[in-house]
Design goal:
single chain, Transferase, Pyrimidine Nucleoside Phosphorylase, Chain A, domain 3, Pyrimidine Nucleoside Phosphorylase, Chain A, domain 2, Aldehyde Oxidoreductase, domain 3, four-stranded mixed beta sheet, 16 helices
Length: 433
């Protein structure tokens, strides 16, 4: 087969067959097809899309490029959660120990930051010593130690997606629905899970900007999951405002720790409880979502979730006492007027973090875990001219001006008080939940 002919076929919006997809992906994995040709195919997929069969074949090819985990001796339900990504989204770090402490096995293969959204692995690496490159035997050990692990893919697990993942970021093809579906589901199916709960972000801070796009992606995830006999629920959540109080790797981990300790209750916890209650329901631990939420809150308030989190830190190599560094250099971004605060483009907050050094602009770029942004005012809150809106933690002064310019453009001030948007927009999947 000729790679150029496959690229041209996709560019003309002709569907690729399973053999062509297999050939192209596996040849790229072997190094027989270079980055620039893979990038050309990704761009073609981004612009013309893929039909259901193509998306299924791509998912299957990714999955079959490596091994599938099993863990047969762990005799409890295995359920995972995945997010399409958003600004300030640190839910996985909170959700995994919370759900695992309630008797569900949570094998969580996660990714790094894409575009303006942060990555769970990057955030966890702000904890000195914490390892996100676990072998399969280390994954199983962590499951036994504390009921969950959070790790990246290995050379054995979905290596095709692992190689393509960063290239998607570098080619601005992150928001392609077939690429999102195949990347997510191949990793999740490889975990050997019994069920999956998806957090599909919708709004200016995510990759999907409106509810219709989110519904299309959710249906695609559910339909492809069914082909693999994986029960999947999709929770469409609002990303028209940053999630939580902090954006930035170390800062977000510290925010999660405060929630686990019971010192902080905010929209991060609210969304986590929604997702976690679905996980407990699909696992058969709870009889209803309401019952699941109560089980989760009992674990949080009783300290079980935080204890589970600490066990995981030890299992995955974190140094104690914990060392999570935040830059001691900071400045404030002040309000340019008066009115009620409304975020108009949350992605600009994520972009600001990139310019501070806390996110990547190109494949393989190192990030600064110590930088970040604290959001000092809530959406809908009345602010006056000169009020502090953001606290910016930086390492290099040269990076700050662009970050401030983006933060200034991320919000507007309106004259009339407005209703706060809900976090939960829609649930798709199991109608009995």
């Amino acid at each position: 087969m000729n790679p150029l002919e496959i690229i041209e076929k996709k560019q003309k919006d002709n569907p690729l067959n399973e053999e062509e997809i297999n050939f192209f992906i596996n040849s790229y994995l072997k190094g027989e097809i270079p980055d620039y040709q893979m990038a050309a195919l990704l761009m073609a997929i981004y612009f013309v899309g893929m039909d259901f069969n193509e998306t299924f074949y791509l998912t299957k090819t990714f999955l079959n490029s490596g091994i599938t985990l099993d863990f047969p001796e762990i005799g409890i339900p295995k359920v995972d959660k995945h997010s399409t990504g958003g600004v300030g989204d640190k839910v996985s770090i909170l959700l995994a120990p919370l759900v695992a402490s309630c008797g569900v096995c949570v094998p969580m293969i996660s990714g790094r930051g894409l575009g303006h959204t942060g990555g769970t692995l990057d955030k966890l690496e702000s904890i000195e010593g914490y390892r996100v490159d676990l072998s399969t035997s280390e994954m199983e050990k962590s499951l036994r130690d504390c009921g969950y692990f959070i790790s990246g893919t290995t050379d054995e697990i979905v290596p095709a997606d692992r190689k393509i993942y960063e290239l998607r970021d570098a080619t601005s093809t992150v928001s392609s629905m077939p690429l999102i579906i195949s990347s997510i589901l191949s990793k999740k199916i490889a975990e050997g899970i019994d069920a999956l709960v998806m957090d599909v972000k919708c709004g200016s801070g995510g990759f999907l900007k409106d509810i219709n796009e989110a519904k299309i992606l959710s249906r695609g995830l559910i339909e492809v999951s069914e082909k693999f006999n994986l029960k999947t629920n999709c929770i469409i959540s609002n990303m028209d405002f940053p999630l939580g109080e902090f954006v930035g790797n170390s800062l977000e981990v510290l925010e999660v720790i405060e929630i686990l300790k019971g010192n902080l209750k905010n929209d991060v916890l609210e969304l986590t409880l929604v997702l976690g209650s679905h996980m407990l329901f699909l696992a058969g631990i709870s009889e209803s979502l309401k019952d699941g939420k109560k089980i989760l809150m009992d674990s949080l308030n009783g300290g079980k979730a935080y204890e589970c989190f600490l066990k995981n830190l030890r299992s995955q190599g974190a140094n104690f006492p914990l060392n999570i560094k935040v830059s001691d250099k900071f400045l404030y971004v002040k309000s340019f007027g008066e009115g009620f605060l409304k975020f108009q483009d949350v992605s600009l907050i994520g972009r600001a973090l990139q310019y501070l050094g806390g996110g990547r602009f190109k494949k393989g770029e190192k990030i600064d875990h110590t930088v970040g942004i604290q959001i000092l005012k809530k959406r809908g809150e009345m602010v006056k001219r000169g009020d502090n809106l953001f606290k910016v933690f930086y390492s290099k002064k040269s990076n700050v001006k662009m970050a401030i310019d983006l933060l200034d453009k991320s919000y507007k001030l309106v004259d009339s008080k407005f209703e706060e948007n809900l976090i939960l927009l829609e649930i798709m999947g199991d109608k009995d939940a």
